[in-house]
Amino acid sequence: MNKTAKSGKIITSVAIMLSALGLTYTPIPGSEQTLVVVSGTELKEPLQKLQAKFAQANRNIKLELKFQGSQEIVNNYIDNKNDFQPAVLIPANGEILTELGDRFKAINNTEPFYDSPKPVAKTMLVAIAWPERGQVLFANGGFQWERIEQAMTAGSWEKIGGAKNWGSFDFVTTDPTRSNSGQLTLNLWIQAKIGTNITNINSASLNDPSVRSLFSLIKKSVYQPPRSTDTLLQEFIAKGPNDADVATVYESIALYRWQQSKTNQSKSYKIYYLDPSIETTATAVIVRRNINNATANAARKFLDFLIQPEQQAVLVEYGFRPVNNAVDIKTVPNSPWNQNIPGAEITPNINTLPPSPGQITREIQRLWERAN
Fold this sequence. Notes:
By secondary structure, this protein is an alpha/beta fold. The protein is built from 15 helices and 10 strands. Strands 1, 2, 3, 4, 5, 6, 7, 8, 9 and 10 form a 10-stranded mixed beta sheet that branches. Helix 2 links the parallel strand 1 (33-40) and strand 2. Helix 2 (44-57) runs antiparallel to helix 14, helix 3 (70-78) runs parallel beside helix 4 (94-108) and helix 7 (180-194) packs across helix 9 (209-221). The longest helix has 23 residues, at 3-25. The protein is globular.
C-alpha cells in the first residue's frame, strides 16, 4: 500500500471514530424530545435552576417550563386552553390532580395519566407580618384567625391598638379560584370560624350564615387578590407596611424571599406558623392526551431526576421540605433554616392536616364566587 492510500485510510478511520463520538454526545436529528412541564409558580425559581443541569445530563430532551396558578393548571388543561402541549403537570398538591383526573375521566371516559402521581417537594401554609404589626395583632405571639377578622372589621390599625399613621389594615391572600394557597387559607379560616376540623366540613357547614358573612368580609377587604402565591409575596415585599400588612403564603417562598424583604424594606417580615396548618405536597404527573410513549419516557427521566438527593437539596435551598428522606434540611448548604429567619422553625409545634377533598375545595370556590 502506498503512503497516500495508507494516509487516506487513517483519515477515514479517524473520521469514523469522531463521527461515532459525535453520535454519542450529540442528539441524532429527529431524536430530540420536547418536554413541556407546567408547574405552580412556587416552584419557578428552583426548577429554572435545575433546568440546565437536567439538560446537561439529557441532551436529547428539550425541557420547556411553564408556570401557572395551581387551579389554573387544572382548568387550562381540562378546557384545553394552553397554546402548548403539556406532558407533565406539577400543581401545589396531589388533591388538585385528583380533581383533574376525575373531571377528565367524566368528560373523556379515558385514563388521564400514564403513571401514579409522584411527590416532588413539601411545604405548608404560614402567615407573614411586618414585625411591629405582628406585635400589635398577635400580642400573645401566636397567629389567630379571629384577630385577622377583628382587624378587617375595624378597618384601621388605630382601632385595634396600632399607630394612627399605619392607616388601614391590609390582609393579602391569593385568588382561591386560581391558586392553591388561597384555597388553603379559606379552608383553615372556616375551620377556625365554625370550630371544626377538616374531616367534618361539609356542604351544610360551608353554608352556615357565619361562613357566608366571613367570605363577604374577606372579599371586600382583599382587593384584587393575586393569581399565584409567589406573585403575592413579591407584591407584599414591594408594597411594604401600610399597603400590605399580613399575608398567608407557603413556608417555602416565605423562607426563600425573606432576604429580599430585608433588602427592599430595610426590615424583614416575621413568619407565623398556623395551628393547625395544612401540609401541601407539590405532586407531578405525566398526562396522556397527545403525549406519546417516547415523550412519557422522557418525562419519567425528569421526575426521577427531581427526587434524587442533589436536586432535593436544591429545593431545600429554596425553602421546600424534601420528599426524599435521605436529605436533612439542617445540613444542606445555604439551608434557610440555618439563617436565623424570624419565626422559622425546623419542627414547628403545630398540627398539620392534609388538604381537603376536592368536593370541599370546589364548594369553597363556589362560595367565594357568590360572596359579595
